[in-house]
Amino acid sequence: MKVTTDACIQGAWTPVLPDVKRVLDVGAGTGLLSLMLAQRANEIIIDGVEFDRDAARQATENVNGSLWKGRITIHEADARSFAAPVKYDLIISNPPFFNDSLLSSKEGKNLARHTLSLSYTDLLKVLNTHLADDGYASVMLPFPEYQKWQVLLAQNEWFELSRLYVKHTMAAPAKRVVGLFSKKKVLTADEQELVIMDDNNKYTNTFTDLLSPFYLSL
Fold it and tell me: What's the rounded Cα separation, in Å, for the pair 157 and 159?
């Protein structure tokens, strides 16, 4: 599972409010989001849940080699049946998102990228089960899939707090969207936009400012 720019943006942009103490990373993959949040917030405790055995082992290795190993636990488990010890103030997920596209010949890649092991309905059930009443969730999806996710949550009386449109260039359409959701009623979601590359094919200042704490160089 490759570390993607999209996932790094989600890990860097997702707010960690002062009252957040416990975090659940659903579909932890290599542990990237857990590690980024732990770097950003010194007091939070994170549980990462990963279904794929090889990915869970890789995430555990990455966590154990980090400065934050005492605050992150990787669980090799199915998020749909995960028995969490607490309710979480923040749940973050970069879930599988392809619904109707052709599958790869690699089973691990299919599980990571296609909604075979965790459908959007499944993810919503995980949020309903594990999120504290005053908590919030961060989910990143491709733009077309994000629209489906918005409809599903609205139908189940969830509210969108904020969304970040991610564009490769200013002229390009939004490629990814990171959204924050809660059970608390909100009338209008805050909208933001992040453009990765400028007209000279260089990283924009906004992108550099957001990601520089996590990259060796930009």
Answer: 7
Helix (H, G, I), strand (E, B) or coil at 180: strand
pLDDT tens by residue, 13-39 = 999 999 999 999 999 999 999 999 999
Torsion of CA 37, 39, 43, 49, to 10 degrees: 40
Contact 71, 46 (CB under 8 A): yes
* Interval 62-96: pLDDT, tens: 999 999 999 999 999 999 999 998 999 999 999 87
d(CA 12, CA 123): 22
Distance, in Å, from the CA atom of 18 to the CA atom of 70, rounded to the nearest integer, reads: 20
For residues 50 and 74, the answer to whether their CB atoms sit within 8 Å is yes
The total number of structural domains in the chain stands at: 1
Closest CA to 178 of 136, 215, 129: 136
Of 16, 48, 44, the residue nearest 34 (C-alpha): 48
Helices (H), 47-142: 53-64, 107-113, 120-130
Residue 205, pLDDT > 60, answer yes
Report if pTM > 0.85: yes
Instruction: Return the CATH number at 53.
Output: 3.40.50.150
Q: How far apart, in whole angstroms, are the C-alpha atoms of residue 45 and residue 23? A: 6
89 neighbors 135 (Cβ within 8 angstroms): yes
CA atoms of 143 and 147, how far apart (whole Å)? 7
